[in-house]
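<tokenise_the_fold>
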Amino acid sequence: MAKSPSGAVVGVDVGGTFTDLIELDPGTGRVRLAKVASTLDNQAHGVLTALTEAGCDLAALDLIVHGTTTTTNAVLERKLSKTGLITTAGFRDVLELGRRTRPQAYGMKGDFTPLIPRNLRLEVAERMDAAGTVLVPLDEAGLRAAGQALLDQGCEAVVIHFLHAYANPAHELRAAEILRDLWPNDHITLGHALLSESREFERGVTAAVNASVQPLLDRYIRRLTDHLAAGGYGGEVLVMNGNGGMVSARRVALEAAKTVMSGPASGVMAAAYTGRRSGHENLITYDMGGTSTDVALIRGAEPTVSNEIEIEYAMPIHVPMVDVRTVGAGGGSIAQVNPAGLLEVGPESAGARPGPICYGRGGERPTISDANLLLGRLDPAGLNAVEGGISIDHVRDVFARNLGAPLGLEATEAAAAVIRMANTKMAGAIRMVSVSLGADPRDFALFAFGGAGPLHATALARELSIPRVLVPARPGITNALGCVVADLRHDFVTTVNRPLDTLDPDHLARVFALQTAEGEALIGKENIEIRGIRRLYSVDMQFQGQTHLLRVPLDRPDVAVETLQELFEAAYYKRFRVALDDIRANVVNANCSVIGARAELDLSSLIDPAERKATLAEAEKSRRPVWFADSDAGGGWHDTPVYWRDYLPEGFEITGPAIVQQMDTTLLIDPGDRATGDADGNIIVEIGGAA
């Protein structure tokens, strides 16, 4: 196996507003950071700019790990490659029929547009039954004709999606052989190869997503690696997947759908890594960036991974991904009064261009960042703004005119209302990953990161009765740090679909063995040394007659039927507080995650010990009035010390109100809260009055 990187490792994450980079050199302890505006038209430019900004020597780097939003943005914005689909006769409309749900639960109607239009969804004769027995042989001549018809219509990628290929993939495999003789590229997606699951709608949508973004990701990765090679880089490029693992750039486009949500996943992996080192293994992650807020749940230092993610209505991507929930509330989220006279915050964002008003790049619509500036929580001199910036008086005038006047509020009151509305949306997202799934927020710490997360974290923790907030050393570049510390990971899902009382446990063990062997083989192909392999096993189960699945973790692959019954009943009761003893259970899927653990990295170097001051007074850089939401009076101004984080002494203790400022974020400590530090440079804020 290849040598472990002994030189510098770079993690770079492309967000909707900023591209963040961190370089860690394990040998020297050197840390380099960069935060530059994202170039969403060509993300490679932003990556290369960040490398230059940080002063990275490409020839001296051992490894670059990249989190990208290329596929996520393409799907959400529907900027996709022209893609065709060949499916079983009679089933071309599966992608459009869906699951008989509605975009709005209480709406009378709702429309959506499938990824592949009907004229590009062609049928051929073939049929397996659910047991994998051939009922109708594959019409090979018809398949060739369908492939040629799609090429004639300009398709760049194609999906082969047969009804019961999960039970017997022979027809899909043969169809791929035939198409490779006439298809001009490698962009051929087999539904069963990506997702060996029985549900044809979810399997088909996942395959359609994969095929339609595959050419885009392939071109982007080739362009990026060519630029890096031209700059002297000769090492491996790894790309983050949505499951929190990584895969070589040489292979990533084969399963492009797995890179959806890779950016948010990298932040969750950094949180799990940091939390484990700091002794906080149960975390709710809270990543507030410039465009949106992502939240996730971590138990025992293991993020929750789900293969039931729906990134928008009728868009289920059933490959394992870190279970991240997103709301449209970021620092750049625009606040406005709607036609009904109500205040709205997001989901529309000012983005990187023009950005919030306070960036001075032409923005004239009030945002969350502008509200924080107006309330004294942000330092005007510390913003990522053009030279000269924008005066606070100008921001105040915009708030008074756009929000205050229609709402009957002063500018400060309007800014406070914007913050309250944003916090309400973000608290709702946190409840979705905790309370709605049977987890009590009081049993977790809130891991706050992103450029704007620490500004709002203590208020959210207080509202949700979360006892403490953990703020990592470099909150604004945590997603990039996640790229550096993440492990290699491959996840597998295989449909079993057997009632529990007829399940052969030896068959289940054999499925797990095959999954484990494939995962270990894939990890062995990577040019990265690992320090060990972990295997996580679980099954998806349901009571017969139910639609939704419940994930049941297993300690080992060989498990007795009686044990499965007990584990499922316990998991079901924990989630729903209902016991259904008289209904038979069903095992639907067998899941296995094979994780290649990389070498540990020392995070203490993220805060330079030479920068620390001897006393807290020396770390104080200024004082200014800051508005806090006091429970008694509804809100008020406090004379507040502002500390520079790199200057904080070892063993410091800060009692709020206070502000801790650094290069990539600002931490707000409310009156009555108490903040201390640990060996890795994390700040732990104990929430005053938290239950």
